[in-house]
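Mods, move this if it's the wrong board.
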Amino acid sequence: DLRLEPLQQGRIHAIPNGFRQARIIPAGSTLPRIIPGRGGPVAAANHRKSAADERHRVDRWLWFARFFKSRSLAAAAVTGGKVHVNGERTKPSREVAAGDRLDVTQGPDVVTVVVRTLPSRRGPAAEAAACFEETDDSRARREAGRLHRRHERQLHVAPPSRPDKRARRAIRQLHGRDPG
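Not the wrong board. Structure tokens:
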């Protein structure tokens, strides 16, 4: 939309809606072409998506929700098969929407979450935690794995001293790294 106002003789004052600064156009020239649906605050205001239509790339959402420290790490995890959307292996460009289920493998744990909202920025941890809901079975699996790892650490007995040359050779031979 363009509002035209006569300003002085020989000039036309053109003010595109949504802009504060006026443009002065010489009288003999043609008016600028305004293409509907292209850029600018006017187009952005006219083409707002509803909350149901919004989607984010999966790597971007994982970064926003603070599963990874950088977007490139999130993209690498998705490419490496560490992230599944609705049970399927995916690419970083796959879009997620509210209600999608993500299985994210982080170290020994697999975290299963349901996307609740699509954040507009990478905000604080409290804001990021509101973007998803971890399933109950995922929480139980992670807790069981944590207890299992703690129990294994307690069972491990450290040797009283560093192994000497003979003991190191025996260890290598035991692990199959030294044929002699």
